[in-house]
């Protein structure tokens, strides 16, 4: 990648913060409270399946097909059913409250996150955070992880009522950053949501495929996409 980079668009979940680990941890803790007599392996199993969401309820929410709370309840019931855990009736609301409390306590940056953010700050590169989190969740994650003042803007699904991969969100970020699209590097762990729309707008893109992410790089990947295994490799791209 030889083009000049003057600004960054960054994804949040599983790019800067280890959201998957926090979700598994939160789900496991809450399952333990809801089903104290169940086999302890089911607590962890619940946490993992709830996080990995094999029925892709989160994708349906991201496409605007279902509301956030409906997504959560469908995911909960699917996971509970799969692990043959007892119906908890209206205690789903307890799950929601306890889950978010546990999730908040489980927030953690990846080891290489500050390396990238510090390098970008040192190079004077403005950064915009673009996330499919709700405003409330994004605010919490940014606050807990201490990233609050790092970004020119934080764009969530609530900011304009749209989420990634809608290219308009990237275009709004470009406006906030105040530089041409060709000088922006978009960094994220999801090819379809973080990388493809940026490339379509003429931005540069670094697709983060961490070694434990269970992702595979397709043979026909657009040659404009740089694949990186760590955020440290993104630092090297900044020149
Ligand atoms: Mg992500």
TrEMBL record:
The keyword Hydrolase applies. GO terms for biological process: small molecule metabolic process. It is an enzyme of class 3 (hydrolase). It comes from the Bacteria. Its cofactor is Mg(2+). Gene3D superfamilies: 1.20.120.1600, HAD superfamily/HAD-like (3.40.50.1000). GO terms for molecular function: hydrolase activity. Pfam families: Hydrolase (PF00702). PANTHER family: 5-AMINO-6-(5-PHOSPHO-D-RIBITYLAMINO)URACIL PHOSPHATASE YIGB, N-ACYLNEURAMINATE-9-PHOSPHATASE. This is HAD family hydrolase. Its EC number is 3.1.3.-. Transmembrane segments: none annotated. Keywords: Hydrolase, Magnesium. Coiled coil: none annotated.
